[in-house]
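#lab-general

N.A. 3:47 PM
ok so I finally got the sequence cleaned up, no stray characters, all 204 residues accounted for. can someone with queue access submit it? mine expired

B.Y. 3:52 PM
send it over

N.A. 3:53 PM
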Amino acid sequence: MVEENGACVKSHSMGIRIQKKILGKMASRSVARHFIDDDAGKILDALYAFLKETKSEVEAKKLIKCIIKIVIKLGILYSNEKLSPNEKMLLKQMIRNFSKLIMTLVTFWEVAFSYDEQHLVSQLSSVEDTIITIITPHLTTKSERRVRYVFSTMTESAVLGALFRPPPDDPSRFHSSHLDLMAPILRDYVFGKDQDPAVTTPDP
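B.Y. 4:20 PM
back already:
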């Protein structure tokens, strides 16, 4: 009986590994819609458009795919009850901190001359560290590198400056046109969420 139970557990773990590998290879915005709701999908689309112009189309696609793979694998860990109670608590805390991060972005958009790069980088780094803490016991170093890549890109001074600083040819503006498009989506996303968010998992 012990062998049967052990085999069952081993088979289940292998199934999860295969699922993560397959979905990781299939990562695209269409696949992500099974794990990410429409509002979050709009944020991804807006981020892609911004990065395509700020960095390059290749790098924009790479970063969005990394984000999707991270979300998919977190969703699999969550839905298969692979996270410990403490890891689930950290995940919910991370999601709340992410909501606070979004509201910081919105505030910088609404209030002229309020942009504080150091404060924003600190919030981004906090979210990054929490994700790394959650995934390290479960995923490979490749997944960790994806997380590091996403946040190292998004904390680049040039990237943040392109979003929050006014264009040099239009000093009357307080920030970029990309932020004008992105901020309302971010604001609607946060206000549309419950106070105690959980990971969005696919329907059975």
